[in-house]
Sequence to fold (139 residues):
Amino acid sequence: MADVILLFGRILFIGLLYLFLFAAVRTGVGMVASGGVRSKAKGLALTVAEGPRELRGVTLQLSGPIVIGRSPDADLVIADDFVSSIHAKVIPDGDGAIAEDLNSTNGTIVNGQPLTRPMRLREGDTIELGTNRLKVVRA
Fold:
């Protein structure tokens, strides 16, 4: 009697294992047929174009406000004497972004113009903080 129960348990276990494998393969085939995981529409990001060697090429997606400064509390930390502790902030806004200087000592420059009030950013705009240059890109 015990042998019959063990045999039935093994058959049930193998059946459940095959159902699990079938579901996993079916999901994988669906991802391959649809081209994989769908990516979100490309939004704006900040790329460090000029600055410290370890930061050059770093890209930060603008999924929320980004605070730039020398302080470890900043989202983008730039170790430069011309950058204030909390220097500037970039906030995503619809299909663009808003740049704001946070009363920095040396100021912030957007597209060659001093940033005196919040300014709208678009793809291709540049932000200069001291000797550092950030570029607004689609990523």
